[in-house]
Amino acid sequence: MTTFAIVDLETTGNASPKGDRIIEIGIVLMNEAGSVIREFSSLIYPERDIPPFITSLTGIDEEDVMDAPLFSEIAGDIHPLFKDAYIVAHNIEFDLGFLNDELQRCGFPRLHNPIIDTVELARIMLPTSSAFKLGHLAEKLDMGHDRPHRALSDAQVTADLLQYLLKQMQALPERTLSQLLKIEGKLKSDLRTFIESAVEEARYRTQNDTDIEILYGIAVRSRRPDEVRSASSSIFPPFEQWNKEVYEGENGLKSMVPEYEIRKGQQEMTSHVHKALEENRHAVIEAGAGTGKSAAYLLPAVYHAVKNDERILITTHTNSLQKQLLEEEIPKIERMFPRPIRAVLYKGKGHYISLIHFQYELERSYQDNYDTALTKAMLLVWLTKTRTGDIDEVQLPSNGRQFWHKVSAEQSSKTEQLGYTDDSFFQWALRRAEEADIIITNHALFCLDIIKEETSLPSYDRAVVDEAHHLEAVAGRYFGLRMNYRDLQRYLTQTTELAQKSLYKGWPVPQSFYSHLNKLQKAVDEAKEELSQFSRYIYQHVKKQRNSSRGRSDVGRTQMTLEKERSASFMQSAKEMSNRFLSAVFVITEQMTSMQNELQILLTLKEDHGIPILLSRIHTQKDVCLDIRHQLIDYFDSQDEESVRWIEIEGEGAANSIYLYSEPLNTPGILKERLFNQKKSVVLTSATLTTGDSFKYIRDSLGLGDEPDVIETSIPSPYPFHEQVQLLVPDDFPDIKNDPDTFIEALSEAIYSTAHVTNGRMMVLFTSYDMLRRTYSLLKEFIDPEEFMIFAQGISSGSRDRLKKNFQAFDQAILLGTSSFWEGVDIPGDDLSCLMMVRLPFAPPDQPVQKSIDQRLKQEGKNAFMEKSLPQAIIRFKQGFGRLIRSSSDRGVVIVCDQRLMEAKYGKYFLSSLPDIPVVYDSTKKLMDRIENWL
């Protein structure tokens, strides 16, 4: 019977070659039936200091290991435990690397047993897990993990995890297992024996997999039959009667929501949304935190959709809200309706897998690298579970996106003309969306649909825009241009893949076809070289500019706005270099056209499903090249006075890491023309839409302007803010303009002092990336990581969500963030007790779009500060404030280290935009005492 030796180590660091050593070892010997044969555990004297961070993580300090044996003293007991066993660890390269280095140091042979990495196996068997750390998986799978980061406890949990994952493997369909066998050789773990055993079991299972079907040779989860949309409208009571029953009746929300309380504001919002939809009017509705905004607009939207047999679109900014609407809110309100609600989450083609293209890639698994093999294995298992085929469900490995572009539905743009139908997930999502009552999408696809001639969404006449304060910024991005060196290089690399002769092996293509492949490869090489020179030239030019003409983005990139007069000679030179790059791109498109023509002829002579696959990929890649040509020519030739163009470079990055941007200055005008003038009813809602009790700013910035007959209402939050939060402003901070260094020192001291009082659990919001970076450096000098963990956006690795999760994982942590942390980051409950705003959130005046809009407003004789800068800052201030209080039980303090809030004339506008809360203006020392007493 197979034996597993499951091992876990605690060490002084993560680099054995640099002298890090083992401080604890835990080993569990287990047989295939799951019975534990033996356990071994020991602390180890590491012959070097244990860093404070390791002590904080593991609880093991110098005193604990003082009397522990050296590794050499127990090596003789450890080595025999691995005889004839599979070595298993959670991240095997780390544990086995350390173990072998120590064994070798003691004169024992290195271990070369078959291995299983439970991180890798978990990625394959649980591809939709949001994280693969041992603690996260133990919690998700409800496995007791009493002493995380202690070796024996971690080894025991790893043993439980291994058993669970092998059972998951045994439950897979035979087809999936057989395809995994073809990939297994490229993985780290030695899984062949276990997969073969599972194949045998699957063959002789008595019951069939009723929830599995085979499509294009791949086992996928059976899809529910599409409901046919009923032509007749449903019978409903009048809306007022129905609304009252929903909110106040015994069979309404009261019967479904535990501890339900009637919220008048929620009921009022439902009536306003219904009125807008019914009377073909636009609406702007601000609904404070705790209103129950999602249900308040879903109820009338579904009522209208079901009653009138009409689809309604709902768009949000964040994926988390889309998921919440579909999985929590809609099931909650469904019983209020006479039939099930047909609601779908709809995304662009690039989100969905094409089964035909995936099958094509599975047939070519012999040439995979590790990341591709792992990605394929994850997708094979995921397809047996997913209902949507949406890749956002999967946590792809680092280079998995490179493989994904080959198998996404974007590759199937011309399938029907090529003689086959890719009837998989995108087509299914489209059919469901066309039959839906409610389509949920994101602002990005919503804006793409508005701006493009070809529609990206099924048609709709009425829409609800949640998180509407984001719409202007997202629209600006999608109505403009975004292009960077890294993406362009990636597109060229993808084109190179089509020039590989091995793809066309065995087909009777003429010799001229191989000539086109050679010319294509040569053109791609030339394009890459020209792109590098073009990018380096731009990078060096931006870097040489005097500071007065440069700005900084919120992630620290250097920015340079392109101004017609000042940038003329640079633009001319950049345009010439761009044209050399585009000449090579033109040759690429010509060669791909010739390849298409010859493959089309071959398609009439030979039946081979690989031909239309490659034809569709060539077509897709050619379209990308044509888009690049069109966009770059337009970028350097454009005489458009209605847009702003700028360049960003990574200050510390490679000498060609450039980003080209443009945005229209008239985003409101485009939204008015393409959205509000075209649709019967658009409802804009958010918790932050007013400034000074007025909707003027948001209406002007989103294109509604002075349009008559727009419904406006502001519904206050039901939370008792005066009991939940205090706003504190220190009156003794140095003047930032006269002495920025002393200001940063005072800020760092205040952060440290506050963290002591609040036990960490604080978020610090900056308006300047440079100030964040300098504050972080100073804090790292005098804060011991054993005391507080510090995470900083743009410095600590990981996305915004990853930083948030890391922050929540530590009891005493401080999170530093810039502009994107001002909104959309929810840290409810005790995880966040203090929010510190370093400065009032005015957009930096040197930001390209802000600067251009300010100049335009001044030319029109308007006050740019009062018209744009101030209301924009107030909305961001309200958003930042909203990070702290996310439920009726949250409590905390907001500290604003900017005396302008109390002393500048415009400070009152910020204060009046907040709920009625205590505001205290005093010395930092007294504020600290107040926080301690209050919390």
Automatic annotation (TrEMBL):
Spell out the Pfam families in the cross-references: DEAD (PF00270), Helicase_C_2 (PF13307), RNase_T (PF00929)
Q: What's the cofactor?
A: [4Fe-4S] cluster
Which Gene Ontology MF annotations are present?
helicase activity
Record InterPro entries: ATP-dep_Helicase_C, DEAD/DEAH_box_helicase_dom, DinG, DinG/Rad3-like, DnaQ, Helic_SF1/SF2_ATP-bd_DinG/Rad3, Helicase_ATP-bd, P-loop_NTPase
Reaction(s) catalyzed by this protein?
Answer: ATP + H2O = ADP + phosphate + H(+)
Q: Where is the Helicase ATP-binding domain?
A: 252-537
Its Enzyme Commission number(s) read: 3.1.-.-
Kindly state which keywords UniProt assigns to this record, in alphabetical order. ATP-binding, Exonuclease, Helicase, Hydrolase, Nuclease, Nucleotide-binding
Transmembrane region(s): none
Protein name in UniProt = 3'-5' exonuclease DinG
* DEAH box (motif): residue ranges: 466-469
Q: Which SMART domains match?
A: DEXDc, EXOIII, HELICc2
Q: Which NCBIfam families match?
A: dinG_rel, dnaq, PRK08074.1
Q: Among its keywords, does the record have Hydrolase? A: yes
- Record-linked PANTHER family: DNA REPAIR DEAD HELICASE RAD3/XP-D SUBFAMILY MEMBER, REGULATOR OF TELOMERE ELONGATION HELICASE 1
Q: What does this protein do?
A: 3'-5' exonuclease.
The UniProt entry, under PROSITE patterns, shows: HELICASE_ATP_BIND_2 (PS51193)
